[in-house]
């Protein structure tokens, strides 16, 4: 979607079903939402919360990509998978989640896209307005983000990850215009320019504000280690702690950052998490992402720019605006 005026009218059935939210964000926003096409790669505790939220809100279509066969471990945080092996046995996460999501709102088209996210080409992406990745390698995230930016149409890009009690969301809306509500009820159009993921993670650490979230740095260390070792997200565990801490030291020395900004206890928590997700944290992250995607589609409200972090240890969410290197 290009953020322009919505065309066409909502049906009487849509107007009745979405009456309460239309009262909140208006009919034009609902029209835009009903025409938006979303792709989610990776079905887990965070993305199923997000999918539930946008399906209930009335997104136009939702496509799910995750060919991994459901295992018993998936039941821990994924409530869309019935705890019945006769239902999920031998089937992919995307297929099982798709069946459950259709029941949430029959007016939303939910479908499965088979394939490997790391092999997605630009022409395939042209079908979508929003792309969400979860539990993907840094290489895959950079690849898809770059392809989204190369397309002639505007494609918003998000990543979301939960590491047990911690979570991260990244947002790239490229150039985004939106209406900001001012005191007294008036609105004023604002415009934001987002860096790509590559630009955002390339900023020298010593150029970042001292209050920058420790999770931002810790996630970069873990990503860098996984990339260099050819590991998939979640495959690095506590048994790798010494190697990961050595990588932390190397990166901090290179970036002129005190190692204390990335506490050893935090690194250990992330490693101990592995692929585990804490359902309450998934609900928070999925709720935030759903809210952000709706703001992006409707062009209403101040969107996150460009990282969001949540840590149970702090009990709060933090937004980090990481500018591209040239902006420092």
TrEMBL record:
Pathway the protein contributes to: Protein modification; protein sumoylation
Biological processes, Gene Ontology terms: protein sumoylation
Pfam families, per the entry: ThiF
Subcellular location: Nucleus
GO CC terms, sorted: cytoplasm; SUMO activating enzyme complex
InterPro entries the record matches: ThiF/MoeB/HesA (IPR045886), ThiF_NAD_FAD-bd (IPR000594), Ubiquitin-activating_enz (IPR035985)
Annotated coiled-coil segments of the chain: none
Top-rank taxon: Eukaryota
THIF-type NAD/FAD binding fold domain residues: 18-315
Record keyword Nucleus present: yes
Gene3D superfamilies the UniProt entry points to: NAD(P)-binding Rossmann-like Domain (3.40.50.720)
Single GO MF descriptor: SUMO activating enzyme activity
Stored PANTHER family: SUMO-ACTIVATING ENZYME SUBUNIT 1, UBIQUITIN-ACTIVATING ENZYME E1
Family: Belongs to the ubiquitin-activating E1 family.
Description of how the protein assembles with itself and partners: Heterodimer of SAE1A or SAE1B and SAE2. The complex binds SUMO proteins via SAE2.
Protein's name in the database: Ubiquitin-like 1-activating enzyme E1A
Originating organism: Miscanthus lutarioriparius
């Amino acid at each position: 979607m290009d953020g322009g005026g919505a065309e066409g009218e909502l049906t009487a059935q849509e107007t009745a079903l979405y009456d309460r939210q239309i009262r909140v964000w208006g009919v034009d926003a609902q029209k835009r939402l009903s025409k938006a096409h979303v792709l989610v790669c990776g079905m887990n505790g965070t993305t199923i919360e997000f999918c539930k939220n946008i399906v209930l809100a009335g997104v136009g279509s939702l496509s799910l990509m995750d060919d991994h066969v459901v295992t018993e471990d998936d039941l821990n945080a994924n409530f869309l998978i019935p705890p019945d092996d006769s239902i999920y046995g031998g089937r992919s996460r995307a297929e099982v989640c798709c069946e459950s999501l259709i029941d949430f709102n029959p007016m939303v088209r939910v479908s499965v896209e088979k394939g490997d996210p790391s092999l997605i080409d630009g022409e395939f992406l042209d079908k979508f307005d929003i792309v969400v990745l979860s539990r993907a390698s840094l290489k895959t995230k950079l690849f898809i983000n770059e392809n989204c930016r190369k397309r002639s149409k505007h494609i918003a890009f998000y990543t979301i990850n939960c590491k047990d009690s911690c979570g991260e969301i990244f947002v790239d809306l490229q150039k985004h215009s939106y209406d900001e509500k001012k005191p007294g009820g008036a609105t004023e159009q604002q415009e934001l320019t987002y860096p790509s993921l590559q630009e955002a993670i390339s900023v020298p650490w010593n150029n970042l504000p001292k209050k920058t979230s420790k999770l931002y740095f810790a996630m970069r260390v873990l990503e860098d280690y996984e990339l260099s070792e050819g590991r998939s997200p979640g495959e690095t565990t506590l048994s790798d702690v010494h190697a990961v801490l050595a990588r932390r030291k190397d990166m901090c020395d290179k970036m002129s950052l005190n190692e204390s900004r990335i506490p050893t206890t935090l690194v250990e928590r992330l490693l101990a998490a592995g692929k585990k997700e804490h359902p309450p944290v998934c609900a928070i992250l999925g709720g935030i992402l759903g809210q952000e995607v709706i703001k992006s589609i409707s062009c209403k409200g101040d969107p996150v720019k460009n990282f969001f972090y949540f840590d149970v240890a702090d009990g709060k969410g933090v937004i980090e605006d990481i500018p591209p290197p040239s902006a420092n």
